[in-house]
Amino acid sequence: MAENSSCCTPEGSCHSGGTDVQVGEVTTTYKVTGMTCGHCEGAVTSELGGLAGVSSVQAVAATGLVTVTSKAPLDEDAVRAAVDEAGYELVGQAA
Q1: Is the pLDDT of residue 15 over 60?
Q2: What 3-state class would DSSP assign to 48?
Q3: What's the distance, Cα to Cα, between the start and end of the chain in Å?
Q4: Contact, 86 vs 22, CB < 8 A?
Q5: For residues 71 and 26, is the Cβ–Cβ distance under 8 A?
Q6: Number of Cβ atoms within 10 Å of the Cβ of 19
Q7: Whether residue 28 has pLDDT greater than 90
Q8: Confidence class for position 93, pLDDT limits 50, 70, 90
Q9: pLDDT at 11 over 70
Q10: How many H helices and E strands in the chain?
Q11: C-alpha dist (Å) from residue 53 to 4, 38, 74
C-alpha cells in the first residue's frame, strides 16, 4: 500500500503554496527590509537557498516577507548573515 503523499490535511484543507511541504519540515516567515523588485527577491532567495537544510524560499518584495522551508529550524544569525550578504536587512521573524 502506497503512503499518502497528498498535501491536504485530514481535515480537508489544502496547502496553497507553490511547493509541497514535507512532513518534518519547518516553515518560518521573516521580515526583510529593502526589497523593492523581483531582482531583490531573487538575491534574497539565492542567498537563503544556499543555507544547509533549506528546501524552498519565497521572497515577496511588496510585503517584505520571506518564507523559508527547511529540514530543521534555522539559526537566526545564519539567516541574518545570508540576508546581509544579499544586501538587505533582516528585521526578524514575522509575527
Answers
A1: no
A2: helix
A3: 41
A4: no
A5: yes
A6: 13
A7: yes
A8: very high
A9: no
A10: 2, 4
A11: 24, 24, 8
Nearest to 69 by CA among 26, 30, 19: 26
pLDDT at 22: 54
Residue at grid coordinates 509575527: 95
Q: Are 35 and 64 in contact (CB under 8 A)?
A: yes
Strands (E) across 7-53 are located at 26-33
Contacts of 34 (CB under 8 A, 6+ apart): 40, 87, 88, 89
Type and span of the H or E element at 94 = none
| Cell digits of residue 31 | 521580515
Task: Give the integer Cα–Cα distance in Å for 40 and 45.
Answer: 8
Using the structure block, give the residue that is written with the C-alpha cell 544579499.
86
Angle (nearest 5°) at CA 58 between 66 and 4: 120
| Alpha helix positions (H), 1-95 | 38-49, 76-86
